[in-house]
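Students often ask why we bother encoding 3D structure as a string. The short answer is that it lets us treat folding as translation between two languages. Here is a chain of 90 residues written in the first language.
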Amino acid sequence: MTDYNASTASIKVKDNDLFYQAKINMTKAHLKYLQFHLFRKSCEDQQFRDPRNTKLMELVGKVFCLQELLEDSSAVYDSGFLAPGTYRAM
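And here it is in the second language, the structure alphabet:
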């Protein structure tokens, strides 16, 4: 956002030409986060017959997160959540 705010171009030029790809990437990352959040919330609220299913669903959520990070982790680096060089540790 600092580059967006520092730009002297008009708002339309910034939104449609200069920063459109960054906005698309962050929107996709946000939607994936919402998908994961809704999954976790529904799993926490659900009463399974077998209590082991709760642990299994938690594991499925972790696998989803790791898969998403391995496919495209640019959003977490751009936001500053992960430091450079963290990808090799995964």
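Translate back mentally: Residues 2-89 form one domain. Keep this in mind for the problem set.
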